[in-house]
Model the fold of this input.
Amino acid sequence: MAESGLRQSLGETLPNALRDLATDFWGGSTIDPGFDQVLRTTPAGQNFAKVLGAHLAQPATQAGGASPYELQVAQVLASAPNFITAGVGSGTGPAPVSVTLTDGAGNQVSSDTPGGTILGGVLLPLGSSTNSPVLGLLTSPTSSPYMLVLTGQSNGAADLSISIPRGDGTVVRGTAANVTVVQGQQMRVVADLSNPNNLALQVDSSGNGSFATSIPLTMQVISPAGPNLISATVIGPETVSQAGKFGLNLVALFDRIVDSTSSVAATNYSIPNNTITSASRQLSGRLVFANLAQPEGPYVPQTFAASGIADQRGITGPTASVNMQSRLQDPGAVVTGRVLGADGNASPTATVNYSNTVSPPDCSDSAVAGFANVPVRSDGIYQYRYVHQDQCGGPFQMSTKDPQTGAVRSVSAYVRAPGQQMVIDLALLGLGSVAGRVSDLSGNPVPSAQVVAISGTDPQIGGRAFTDGVGNYTIGGITVGPVTVTAVKGISLGTSAGNIERAGTTAVVNVTMNGGAVQVSGTVTQLQNGTSTPVPGLPVVYYVVGTAGSKTPAGVATTAADGSFTITGMPTGSFDLVAAPNSVFQVDHAGVAVAGDRLLIPLEIVLPTTGTVNGKVTLPGGLPAAGLSFF
Done:
């Protein structure tokens, strides 16, 4: 029942949702005998059949009566396992007959008596009066032959139709229109599933049970047509509690149950400039939930296409494309920008990564998580069509990695209003060189000294070299802007600074060695849920702290696989050692070093505690629901 409402919210019409409700309640993938008994034998179940039938009266009338409406039902059910449907009326109104359907074991359902004894069988009165058109439905025809009997309640006319499985994956349907009805006289159609093409209306004209008069039915064959795509909707927790709020979950709605193989093949679905990463058939089988590689929202029109999706009989439906809709309630922005190389031209091979703040409802413990990455176009342009606004005011971040240096360039910003159009360009910084001469306090050149250059613009970028026989050095690949140069040999050390003015130029930075050197080493670990693990591949920066508290990067090392690092040849004095995987989580250690110090400094990053949620999902009948995905 809840799924029927969900499908309506996703675009299914109310008449079709009610129609499918009948096949789901009296059928389903397998009939639940206990639930079926409740439907047939309890006042609640029998009343449900009456109410549902009354709500189907309008679509039956719009179709032209019970018989044409039965055709619509049979055309959808042709894609499902074997069934029998029947329609009895007179034009758009009722026929002056009572209707009974009996199986080969003597079980029956009747329009005169609520309930019945046929498993998965029901006669729905298409109206609220005692004399209404009838739609018959049998979802598990396993006891052939079946006999549809019409008994005249007064003189008049009747239209009837019946659809039964043909045995070859198709359905045979027989109809008769404007048949004369005589009060007290019976007519019947015998549906022998072993001889399905022999359908005829037999009339007991003499009233002795001989049924000697036979009226041929107009016959047609109904072939399964495969599923039709109705809609594709981006959803969040406002629709399904397990869905996320970042625009990465979608549900596709089909007009009938899809098969369990083709529906989960992600390659059967496509979205321009996006990818379906996984798909899962859920609930009754008419819904396919999917995960997206890129977030989608309500601000940029998008289309969703499905192809190769088969029904339960393996028949593939038509390829179809629909305009995507969104039920996301949280505001978001559209972010567009360019990635520019150091020369100012577009960088056609870059990838832009999107991260955002994840906050609990009470804003007590926010964290930053990565959600997507998108390659730029050939002109360096990228776009994110939905960037979620954090309800606690947290920022989002766009970042890219410089393909030449490996340095990460990032920009953080805030979503201020729904549908905000934001332009965020990411510029890769130019590179230059630093060169100079290393000498001692007497002005003599110092050969074989190790020289380290660290960019002040981007401390993760640096280089090293050794002086030649006359104390000269050159280091390339340093980011444009301020640069710190440190030279060390033995216990002697010197530091100087300069500035690379623009890309391709060389800054001259001479260094005088006049003090002792410091070595610092340690291990970077992260602590989460009580477990400490090493952090590999993380830059650790040694900053020299000035008298006014300013920080100048003097050395950097990247942690090894076991989280260890060593930085040698650092200047004496106040320092701050920093390890920062991102702008939210970082750890540092400040101190004062003297010449000859070999400092051992462990750094531990504390991450928020996470937990596990588990439970059990059951169907309305109490059976466990297997194969569901949770977001």
User: Anything to note?
Assistant: Residues 400 and 409 are 5 Å apart (CA to CA).
